[in-house]
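The step that takes the researchers longest sounds almost clerical: writing a folded protein down as plain text. Below is the pair of lines this work produces for a single protein:

——
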Amino acid sequence: MFDALVKNLVRVKQDFAKKYTGSAHIQEVLPTNVSDEFDIDTVHLKSLHDFAQKNPIYFNSYEDEFFGVSCIVYEGDINEYWLNSIKHGSSCQPFYPTWIMSAFIMALFAKQFGYAELIDIGSGDGRIAYCGNILGLASYSVEIDEVLVDLQKTISANTNQNFNPVCTDALEYDYSSLNLKHPAFFIGGLAQMGGDILATGIIEKIDSIQNLKNNTGLVFTGTDAKRNLSGNLENGGWGTLIERHHLDVMKTVSLPTIWTFDQLAETPYIYTKFK
């Protein structure tokens, strides 16, 4: 079922990218209704639209059809947040969000793998943690930029969804305070842009918590663009770290993101666990 969702979302995105004639800084789509192509819970779909409608980065929406699926197009502008997000020395990547539906599918896979908690590291506007929360996972959103955390708090209040935004350096945060049992950590940032340093620090944090390592998953944001890769090209650029820390790759899911809107290849997300 989830693989069909991925396939249909990619098809919709590719059709949308061909047809889009607007000039918005960012743009994405959500299906208008539950359908054979997007067979998800109606309440969950409404919550995804709530996130877009009550998120200040989006300023316009309209209905259109792509790959035979009725959709709402959401247009937005993240320039203000992008500029603010690059001021932090330990930030691995400027704020460029994945698509809302992609974030939902990512959280679906985490739930399918049996994880009880979702911790989104470098969470931007909190969409992955938000999606984890609507799916019943205990979600935590860790972001170093205070302006983005304020944005998350606005979304949380407007949608009545508490995904626990925390403004802190992810490498300094005390994860033992969360009493985690079976968590999935989503690592924001490409390996080649400092994500490997961030991931290594998070792994060290996991190592320091007794009995947590064997129950923990790590989800990495990869890239298939050769110009962004150096060294080990496996697993979206994460091959060296995966080998060094003895991780098993459970699944790779390639999904639309705002930064791959004009590209044929989608963004690979690599689900791993400790051996």
